[in-house]
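User: Hey, my collaborator sent me this sequence without any context and asked if I could get a structure. I don't really work with proteins. Can you help?
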Amino acid sequence: MTMTDGPRSERPQTSTRDYDELRAQLEAWLGERVPGATVSALIVPESNGMSSETVLFDLAVPGEAEPRALVARIAPDPAADPVFMVYDMERQFLTMQMVAEHTDVPVPKVLWLEPGSDAIGVPFFVMERVNGIVPPDVLPYTFGDNWFFDAKLSDQQLLERRAVEVVAALHQLTAEGPAGFLAGPDDGESHLRHHVSEQRAYYDWVAADGVRSPLIERAFEWLEEHWPENENDAFFSWGDARVGNMMFEDFSPVAVLDWEMASVGPREIDIGWMIYIHRFFQDLVEDLGMPGMPHILKRDTVADIYAAASGYVPRDLDFYTAYAALRHGIVMFRITRRSIRFGEAVMPEDPDHAILHHAHLARMLDGVYWGDL
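Assistant: No problem. I've predicted the 3D structure and written it out in structure-token form, which is a compact way to encode the shape of the chain:
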């Protein structure tokens, strides 16, 4: 299968771990912190991400009537061609602590961090488990036959509003405040410039095998030609702001997850990402002639909800949604290589076709994408 054949119903392989061995390693490590504790069989959630790994387990503690429901967030197996260059688990751990301490945004309580590799081979941390449901991304929720798609319109809109309000609440944190440890170097460049430079470095790492994408390189040039004037950009950025990274109960968030892309930058980085990732899923179904959910997470609606929640009107959304599509394109370019590694794909003759949304990204750069909607 090539990456041009459309979305798959199976999740690509993400790990080469022996989970029985991992359970024993976690039990030994946790036993040093909670003497006598035992770890149940590990559960790998169906929604396990393509970057860091997540395993669920119960920790039985002597003297406690009920086991503790826990989660281990684990840096990826180096043998599995990780999606990203760097997995700073301590940075994620500290980010979740910061969000819990300084906002009302619901995040799982983080308990223990292992920054080294002696225990299980890679860094990891352990946090409390939260019960809730997540809009699926395999197949994406826009394909139907899931709780979000099948919900009443009023409930879909409630979820939409509460999700955007989470993003607005996160942006109360700034680089001048507790989010300063996430900022780039103090070298006179803007936080946006640092953010884009890191994405360029990521693309160069992905394409280090010599297979480059003319479309991605054109997109970087487009960013320079359309650079926004707004320099008020010292805000905490979740980085992966989307409904698929939230757990819900009664259509309200009960846990916000996946902090590995956290940084500092303009508020619109998160706003554009939330808008675009839904559009990516919506484009998949529309390309197959299916209706999807075009009424949810529309660009203007997200901007209006954000403005009502924060008092700030998002700007330059052509730039930031294109930037989101570019960022996602680099991730897809990397995932193609991982799929090749596991025998699930081959590199297309045209490298741009390794990016599932290449045609839509090209239309964004041509200035016709949003006008066609």
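In plain terms: Residues 54 and 73 are 5 Å apart (CA to CA). You can pass these tokens on to your collaborator as they are.
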